[in-house]
Structures are given as C-alpha cells and as structure tokens.
Amino acid sequence: MRIIGRYNEDSGFFELNGLLDINTQEAIDILEAGDCQRGSCQALYSCNAKMRTNFPAEHMAGIEVGYPFYYCKNIEVINATNIVWRFPVFGAPRLHTIIGLADVMGDGLRIADQPSLVNLTIMGLTRSIDLGNQPGITMESLAQIVANAKNTKEISIKLHADVFAKLPPELVDSAATKNITFTT
Questions:
Q1: Residue 54, CA distances (Å) to 2, 27, 129, 136 in order
Q2: How far apart are CA 141 and CA 37, in angstroms?
Q3: pLDDT by residue (tens digit) across 20-79?
Q4: Cα(24)–Cα(125) distance, rounded to whole angstroms?
C-alpha cells in the first residue's frame, strides 16, 4: 500500500500534495471527492468548492479529462497523475501547482487561465501548449517539461513575456535539441 498523505500529530493537520494544513473537515471532503478510480474525474471534481487539493488518479492511466477541476474556486494544488487534459482549468484563482500531468490533447492547449500557476509538471509532453497566462511559471517547471517531453514533431511552448525574458540560454538550447521552441 502506497501512502499518499498523512496526519501530522505535531501540527494536528493532514498533509497531502505539499499542503501541510488540511483540517479534518477538508480531509473528509477530499476523501468524499474520491481518487478518480472509476467513472469521470470531471464529475468528481468539477465545481467542488470545498477542496484545495485531491488524490492522484493512479488507477486511470492515460485517461482524457475535459475541463478538469472546473470552477474549483479553492483548489491550490492539483495532483494530475496519469491524467491527459483536453481543455484548460477555469475558475480556479488560487491554483498554484499542477503535479504529474501525463500530457495534453489538442494543439496549442492552454493549461490554465489562472495567473497564479507557478509550478507545473508534465510527464510526457507531445503537443504544443500555451502558458502565456502564467507570468509566474518557474524555470524549474519549464526545465522539467522539456526534459521529459516525448514529442515526435516540432512543438512550441508559449510563455508570458516576463517568463520568456528570463529564459536561460541553456534551457533554450536544451529545448531546441528536442524540437521545442519557446514563443510569446
């Protein structure tokens, strides 16, 4: 059995996906939302105003999800393990981290329309993505996306102008070796 989260006896809070202050009621809400083992992740998570994070979709390898976490107004960290997104996240103004996204579907996909997103991991990018609305996306996130990309054709990653201006030459070079270009 793999442990996903834990209760911290010292703090009195549950810990999951990097959030260290999940109270008992919120932990119950996350449990009730489920872990996407069966059926639709969209049905489980959409419009869920109670959760700040979720369990990973471990048993749904490669599932395609439309409008994930749609209007989850309090979501901060999304564990997207094994999920392939078809559409962006909307109505999640507090979202700052997306963990373990398998890939995206569709050319030019926008990951999220929330400017608060700073941390993003994509485990096997195969298509162009639009991160133009994320002025705080980290260089570490971009380096991880490039390092794990599995594209077989030329793709692009659109960036906010502020992020594009900070791109280190070694990251641009690394992307070029994988047929990835950064644009604004």
A1: 16, 10, 24, 23
A2: 27
A3: 998 888 887 777 666 555 445 555 566 666 788 887 766 555 556 666 777 888 889 988
A4: 36
